[in-house]
TrEMBL record:
PANTHER family assigned: CITRATE LYASE SUBUNIT BETA, LYASE BETA SUBUNIT, PUTATIVE (AFU_ORTHOLOGUE AFUA_4G13030)-RELATED
Protein name per UniProt: Uncharacterized protein
Organism annotation: Streptomyces lavendulae subsp. lavendulae
Origin: domain of life: Bacteria
SUPFAM superfamilies given in the database record: Phosphoenolpyruvate/pyruvate domain (SSF51621)
One of the GO BP terms on file: oxaloacetate metabolic process
TM stretches of this protein: none
An example molecular function term from Gene Ontology annotations: magnesium ion binding
Length: 391
């Protein structure tokens, strides 16, 4: 699979200076973590889940979570498990084949579900990339990660990944946050080769204080949440080789509501003929706030995003593509002859590139360029957004 693989090769050639690379579940973990993109959540109880998965793959989704936890009621868990077994069998039996399926993860409730589900899935388990582990703490995490290891051994798969979700009150409460983060760090580092990425449960964070952000506000406008995000990145996503990929929080809104504040989406990128309609559509569907939050995610060290609606996928991916300017800066910083450090004017002559301080940024940018591609010099996110939405 590849990002923007759902659009025609001709259109991709027009958009990209460097096209997104292909990847699969067998790719290196650091590549997969960067490539997750907009991870679309779906309740495991959906009766036509296999068809939904194929449909979303055709629209550019490359990672999905099939949820047995908060998205379904307690009474539906057993039915959801049975449905997953049926739907994986349907995927496996598809005469069209299974090439191009998204990376599929199951979000469970308990460690015991993990080996049980792998056993019940049987042969079609080969289409499973791993498990999402809810309400992850040091005390709960070891049992979850051990269960993934046991399930992997029983399945015969080369790897089942885990994606812990950080969402418990002890991360939010100031008096327990430092030790909670230290405990999570100890746990995920013991299982480093298995932990693909860490996910943030911002809705659960908000619930601790009875908060809910409006579509006019990002997670970073809710200061108590922004503080937790900053501390998670501080401890768990350092650029010194010890960090993990941390993904952005969910955007909850997908239909128009009464707006209190001015739209956050500037008019200038949409001035070309006919594109103003796209801006209007994005605002009407509360996606201007999403676009701003994606930018703030990346500025704060997060990559990828949890999504609960297909309409959110293309904006996440369009804003994940590396611009030609970013790529030029990263290339310049990483040139072998720059190994001794120094400062130079950027290729675009609009900023300073300082080799040693900017090196980690450049390395991360080149990894993002590998999986999301590099836009041509004259191509902006509006062009990428339009191409993705027209499929």
């Amino acid at each position: 699979m590849r990002h923007f693989g759902h659009i025609s090769p001709t259109v991709r050639k027009d958009l990209f200076h460097q096209e997104p690379a292909e990847f699969s579940v067998a790719s290196p973990a650091h590549t997969l973590a960067a490539a997750l993109g907009a991870t679309l959540y779906s309740p495991a109880t959906r009766p036509h889940l296999a068809a939904d998965i194929r449909k979303q793959a055709g629209r550019g989704v490359v990672s999905m979570v099939l949820c047995l936890e908060d998205s379904i009621s307690d009474s539906d868990v057993l039915g959801g498990e049975e449905n997953l077994v049926r739907q994986f069998a349907d995927l496996d039996a598809d005469p069209a084949g299974t090439e191009g399926l998204p990376l599929l993860f199951i979000r469970v409730r308990t460690p015991e579900q993990i080996p049980d589900l792998v056993r019940r899935l049987g042969g079609p388990v080969r289409h499973l990339a791993g498990f999402v582990l809810p309400k992850f703490t040091e005390s709960r995490g070891t049992a979850f990660l051990d269960a993934v290891a046991v399930a992997e051994s029983a399945s015969g798969l080369p790897r089942l990944y885990a994606m812990p979700v950080l969402e418990t009150p002890d991360l939010l409460h100031l008096e327990t946050r430092v030790e909670a983060l230290a405990g999570i760090s100890r746990t995920v580092n013991r299982y480093r080769e298995r932990v693909l990425a860490l996910r943030l449960g911002v809705t659960d964070f908000c619930s601790v204080y009875g908060l809910r952000r409006t579509p006019d506000m990002t997670a970073y406008d809710v200061q108590i949440v922004a503080g937790v995000i900053a501390d998670v990145v501080n401890v768990l996503s350092r650029a010194d080789g010890t960090g993990f990929t941390v993904t952005g929080p969910v955007w909850e809104y997908f239909r128009s509501q009464q707006r209190l504040f001015k739209p956050q989406l500037r008019r200038s990128p949409f001035l070309e003929e006919g594109v103003e309609e796209l801006r209007t559509a994005l605002i009407e569907h509360d996606l201007d706030g999403l676009l701003r939050e994606i930018e703030l995610d990346r500025a704060n060290g997060l990559l990828g995003k949890t999504c609960i609606h297909p309409a959110h996928v293309t904006p996440v991916h369009a804003l994940s593509v590396v611009s030609h300017e970013e790529f030029s800066d990263a290339q310049d910083i990483l040139r072998p002859e720059r190994g001794g450090g120094g400062v130079m004017r950027s290729v675009y002559t609009n900023k300073m590139n300082e080799v040693k301080p900017h090196r980690a940024w450049a390395e991360r940018t080149m990894l993002r360029a590998e999986v999301f591609g590099v836009a041509k010099e004259e191509v902006g996110f509006v062009d990428l957004l339009t191409a993705g939405l027209q499929v």
